[in-house]
User: Fold this.
Amino acid sequence: MKTPLAYLLILSLTPTLKAAEVILEKSPYSHQVTLERLKSNILSKGAKIFSEIHHHKGAESINAPLAANTLILFGNPKIGTPLMQTTPSIGLDLPLRLAVFETNKGDVLVAYRSLSSIKLEHQPKLENDLIAKPDKAIRAIVKQSLSKP
Assistant:
């Protein structure tokens, strides 16, 4: 079967989307302490915690081993709403997410996606001002949560 030339032309003209950058930060604290510090800092920045998903508890329910692994979904409607008004598809990546998990070596890591790279998946021309504030906030939350007193 021959591929129609028009199909190949469309593929060649379709912009290639760069995958959103996943940032990993090592925590000096236990999984539980890291979670508590992150949640405290999220709330102190005026954001709301919408949900926590404890993946390891799901694994326990089927008697499968999984190290501690929790996803925090959080955000601020004052910041997220203008993003979705401009680019509705960004709702796929909102609310913001932080994953806190233990590795096989016992290290605790915090993972999150860079909003600057997420915008590339939705609308590369999305105003940087709309992305800069939440991007800066998530980095500050993680940095503050993982710093030693």
In short: Residues 6-17 have pLDDT under 50 and may be disordered.
